[in-house]
Description:
CATH class of one domain: Mainly Alpha
Number of helices: 12
Radius of gyration: 17 Å
Strand content: under 5%
Helix content: 55-70%
Shape: elongated
Largest sheet: none
Number of strands: 0
CATH topology of one domain: MgtE N-terminal fold
Structural class: mainly alpha
Distance between the termini: 36 Å
Order of helices and strands: HHHHHHHHHHHH
CATH superfamily of one domain: MgtE N-terminal domain-like
Amino acid sequence: MPGNEIRIDRQAYFDDIFRSVRDDDRSKFRSLFLKLHDRDKHEVFHLLYPEKKKKLSKLLSPSEFADVFVWMDKEDQEDAIEYLAKEFLIEVLTFVPADDIAELVDYSDRFEPEYILDLLDTTRRDQVREMLAYEDETAGAIMIKEIYFGFC
Length: 152
């Protein structure tokens, strides 16, 4: 006996998201996009044309986009830096763990380290620089100094 599974035509769902971006329909975009798993949100970002990626700063909050940003590969993170409004990106990076930012700074092919570091406030910039001062794959290079609290 078949379970109570819900089957969704993934391509049609993504097409609805792409249309909502094209049409600047924030409400529809949010109702569809925010239901996706973070990996699927990353895939949507990856598949958007550059001019559509620029629109995401008007469709998502910085914290919502940060949740997607941490799932992205380096190339898509670089696309985000290139296409999103600078003010929006500065806010996004306040929600991204310092070790993720350090990795991006260290491995970016498109941006000089100082360009990315200049998007951070002084405290974050110092944290990232401290991480970058350690050799790769050492405890100091991969440690996270932020404390996250969760509630059950």
